[in-house]
Amino acid sequence: MRLRYLVLFLFYFSWDLEACSGIALINNTTDFQQEYRPEGPLVMCKFLPKEFIECEEPIDLMGNKTAKEEIGFGCAKFGGSRYEDVEKAKVSCTVLPYIECFGPRTFNRDGIPCIKYSDHYFTTTLLYSILLGFVGMDRFCLGQNGTAVGKLLTLGGVGVWWVFDVILLVTGFLQPEDGSNWNPYV
Hints:
Helix content: 40-55%
Number of strands: 5
Low-confidence stretches: 16-32
Distance between the termini: 78 Å
Protein name: TM2 domain-containing protein
Domain TM2: 119-167
Number of helices: 7
Signal peptide: 1-19
Order of helices and strands: HEHEEEHHHHHE
Largest sheet: 3 strands, antiparallel
Family: Belongs to the TM2 family.
Radius of gyration: 30 Å
Strand order of the largest sheet: 1-2-3
Mean pLDDT: 80
Membrane topology: Multi-pass membrane protein
């Protein structure tokens, strides 16, 4: 009786081993097309979160809206202080190595904000504006050298320009000259 169970077990085990090795051979071929199963463990590559993909930077078209319309992607304008003001672009993304997903590993993702950061920190600029705004230090930091020299020569417009710039900076109307966004790290 034990021998019979042992023979059945070995027969079943050898059959299961052949089936597994056959599947392994099929998965290693390049011409095998799998069918996507939504209830399966693999997610479509284009639906992966940003932590699992690497995207290129948006292309800077420097205000050329016709070039954006012709090629279909890129940023004609960078920056903006409100969500509605920020332009969105299409970029090419690639899935990171060792991440399993279904579908092409390189794809286009739409809705990437056209934001670039430089060395402009809001807190530092605000402190410069409060402490040294009468000599135009805040305008020098923002890259607005012409108005900074005027502010320096008039000692902050005899204090009026100085206070006015602090208010403009706090309300968000005074931005860096190069169109970049404030760096979020202090």
